[in-house]
Amino acid sequence: MIKQEFCYSKLDETDLSMTFYSKQRTSPSKATLIYLHGGGLLYGTRDDLPEAYCELLVENDYNLLTVDYPLAPEVKLPTIYTYLTDAIDWFLQNHQTTLGLENSNYFLFGRSAGGFLSYLLSARYPRQEQKGLISFYGYYDLTSASFNQPSSYYNQFPKIAPLNAQALIRSKPIAEVSINERFSLYLSGRQFGNWLSYLVNTPSEKETFSLTDAELAELPPTFLAHSSADQDVPVESSRIANTKIANVTYEEVEKLPHDFDGDLTKNEGLQAYHALIQWLDKTLATT
């Protein structure tokens, strides 16, 4: 597997980069998965997808392009969204010259908050080159009650006062920070029900950045995966989307935590990625 790094934009002094995973090939690849990481939009790193899944996708002739985006609350959702449209444009403009690809077919792929961003971009920034949407335990509705009130799950943990959590906010934009460094900001936000205030400028923006039923119905072919026991993003998010998206495939696993594919000792994650590859092949064959 070949890994290359590219810078697609800058925000103040912060580079916004991408990692391109591909293989030495004699025949054209099928498509590129543009990947957006999770972390509640407050933390995370673009290269958080376990290597086993990266290799599986690449071996099955799918390239992977993992993308930085500026994190909240140093910037808010409108800025994050704008930079991600720049990332898509960069891919479309550079797929042939810089990446050496024969085609510009792509799928948006996100986990958790990255799933939310993938929903959003698929609905609001559609491109003919996009062949589908992949959301692992993502969401599309910021007005959901579970995100706007204290979380009973997160309140089992020692309380982190908002003022203590806010000490973790930087003075300049960032595009990468580890879960160890900044999880307490997310934890506090979920404990006190104010997590979304870090993402939006005004309360009305929660609605602005939520997909309508009409937008869900218009989404491209979609693959969803979620655990029935998700303690962070309620499984109802994907169950409801499964009823409202016209062309959808839904894989639900039982009794595993939110990021069920993170534990490589369990088979469910690998099974979900094998199902994803079958779906990718089928989707490309019918578009």
Automatic annotation (TrEMBL):
<keyword id="KW-0378">Hydrolase</keyword>
<dbReference type="InterPro" id="IPR050300">
    <property type="entry name" value="GDXG_lipolytic_enzyme"/>
</dbReference>
<feature type="domain" description="Alpha/beta hydrolase fold-3">
    <location>
        <begin position="33"/>
        <end position="260"/>
    </location>
</feature>
<protein>
    <recommendedName>
        <fullName>Alpha/beta hydrolase fold-3 domain-containing protein</fullName>
    </recommendedName>
</protein>
<dbReference type="GO" id="GO:0016787">
    <property type="term" value="F:hydrolase activity"/>
</dbReference>
<dbReference type="Pfam" id="PF07859">
    <property type="entry name" value="Abhydrolase_3"/>
</dbReference>
<dbReference type="InterPro" id="IPR029058">
    <property type="entry name" value="AB_hydrolase_fold"/>
</dbReference>
<dbReference type="InterPro" id="IPR013094">
    <property type="entry name" value="AB_hydrolase_3"/>
</dbReference>
